[in-house]
Design brief:
Elements lengths: L6 E5 L3 H13 L2 E5 L6 H9 L3 E3 L5 H4 L4 E4 L8 H9 L2 E3 L1 H5 L6 E6 L4 H14 L4 E5 L5 H7 L4 E5 L2 H5 L8 E4 L14 H8 L11 E5 L3 H7 L7 E6 L8 E3 L3 E4 L5 E4 L8 H16 L4 H10 L8 E6 L2 E5 L6 H9 L5 E5 L12 H7 E7 L4 H7 L5 E5 L2 H11 L4 E5 L12 H13 L2
Parallel strand pairs: 1-2, 1-4, 2-3, 4-5, 6-8, 6-9, 7-8, 9-10, 10-11, 11-12, 16-20, 17-18, 17-20, 18-19
Antiparallel strand pairs: 12-13, 13-14, 15-16
Length: 447
């Protein structure tokens, strides 16, 4: 087991930080939680109730630099002054996931990727739960892993992992690792070098043993190119929409086939989630289920009755024949590409926010084919307007979800779709992507 010393400082008091502090306290560490910003009232109450020392709106550097181990919340960039001083002092820094793992007896199925990781994690959890496994969902979704280990350790954990979480993981080992895809995202955190981001994602396979499994998307050129440079010391299970040979699972326009243990075949039309990207997510989840020897009938049924999470291609309402879809979770170009690709009616596209180094040229062909009008929902829309002027006749700017929905309703006609798929972060006009999605839904319901 890792040696974390005795004094733990948790940086950041969000769900990840509070969860890590609760586990550290339970085990008997000396704990301080320090947040540069304000801590929520619920967070303060929980920390105080558990006799955990906390500070907000600033860091006591002398106290922090006395730590044996720092547990860093994933949202904190390396370039902050506090992190620069910690690194200079040579103090051990780990993620909440890395910290929690040694204190859990449970096995882990870990999912990462630029897109699809949340849906794939939810699908896998749904399959395991339906099969009667003692399983929890954690990581980048729901309650933190550390909190759940502290509260009630489970036999299995399905962990959605962001690149930021993976960056501070060293000895952690998954039992099943899943890599959905890799496209440019969060490059501002990786010195604008995609190579750094790729290496971050590939940390998902760190420490895998010959008994473990690595499930990956064989259609993703970035993954395949990187795999060619690596020696993989584990079982591999690739999936594809283009190839059948040597694939653990594949799909065409009619059916999905999983070749693990015994062959499972189901019609594409039976899948609860539509679109090619969701077929890929279903293939990855189906492989995971069959690797755990979950009955074919249970896997098939689970892929057919799954209900996706909020803000992910979520149907909101149909108003006078115009369909409104909330895909606020689409915070990068690739996620929006998949959303537009699945549209089969003329689309009014609501896009914009905080740009993370987007190249909108990747969407040009789809926008030409599918998009009737664009509504920019952000403070700085210059890049979007430049990219699509001349391709789409109608481009308007909105300063709120209410205004965006009002414009969309005016521009829309029967049998058309209004798609909120921003391709950007939300922090210019909203608290987060959930807030953006909720405000969009609220505005639609006011029509």
């Amino acid at each position: 087991m890792q040696n974390f010393g005795q004094k733990i400082v948790v940086l950041g008091a969000g769900e990840s930080g509070v969860g890590a502090a609760l586990l550290a306290k339970k085990i008997g560490f000396d704990v301080l939680v320090s947040d540069a910003g304000p801590i929520s009232e619920a967070g303060k109450l929980e920390l105080s109730t558990n006799e955990i020392v906390w500070e907000e709106k600033g860091h006591s550097m002398d106290e922090i630099l006395r730590a044996d181990t720092i547990i860093k919340s994933p949202g904190i960039p390396e370039k902050t002054r506090v992190m620069e001083e910690i690194r200079k002092a040579g103090i051990k820094v780990v993620s909440e996931i890395e910290f929690a793992k040694p204190f859990s007896k449970g096995k882990t199925i870990c999912i990462t990727g630029s897109n699809g990781k949340t849906t794939t994690a939810l699908l896998i959890h749904h399959i395991l739960a339906k099969a009667g496994f003692d399983v929890a969902l954690a990581g980048n979704i729901g309650q933190s892993y550390a909190r759940q280990v502290a509260k009630l350790d489970r036999e299995w954990y399905v962990l959605e992992l962001s690149s930021f979480q993976l960056d501070d993981m060293y000895d952690f080992k998954a039992n099943v690792a899943v890599l959905t895809n890799i496209t440019a995202d969060h490059l501002d955190r990786y010195d604008y070098k995609i190579e750094n981001y790729i290496q971050s994602k590939f940390r998902i396979i760190n420490n895998l043993s010959p008994d473990d499994w690595f499930i990956y998307n064989a259609d993703d050129e970035v993954i395949m190119k990187e795999l060619a440079t690596k020696k993989i010391n584990t079982n591999t299970a690739p999936f594809s929409l283009k190839k059948k040979e040597k694939m653990a699972a594949f799909a065409d326009e009619k059916q999905l086939t999983i070749n693990i243990k015994q062959q499972l075949i189901m019609s594409i039309h039976e899948l609860a989630l539509k679109g090619k990207h969701n077929t890929q997510n279903a293939l990855a989840a189906g492989i995971a289920g069959r690797l755990l020897e979950i009955r074919k009938e249970v896997v098939r049924e689970s892929l057919g009755d799954f209900v996706n999470a909020e803000h992910r291609m979520e149907f909101v309402a149909k108003v006078n024949g115009i369909e409104f879809i909330n895909d606020s979770k689409a915070t990068n170009i690739n996620a929006t590409w998949f959303a537009l690709e699945s549209m089969d009616k003329p689309t009014i596209w609501v896009v914009g926010g905080v740009d993370k180094g987007n190249d909108y040229n990747e969407l040009t062909a789809l926008v030409k084919e599918k998009v009737k009008a664009i509504i920019c929902l952000g403070l700085d829309n210059k890049k979007i307007i430049e990219a699509f002027s001349g391709i789409v006749d109608t481009i308007v700017e909105a300063n709120s979800a209410l205004e965006a929905v009002a414009f969309a309703y005016q521009l829309g006609s029967k049998e058309e779709v209004v798609l909120l798929s921003p391709a950007c972060a939300s922090f210019d006009l909203f608290e987060n992507y959930e807030d953006r999605g909720n405000q969009f839904k609220k505005a639609v319901k006011l029509l």
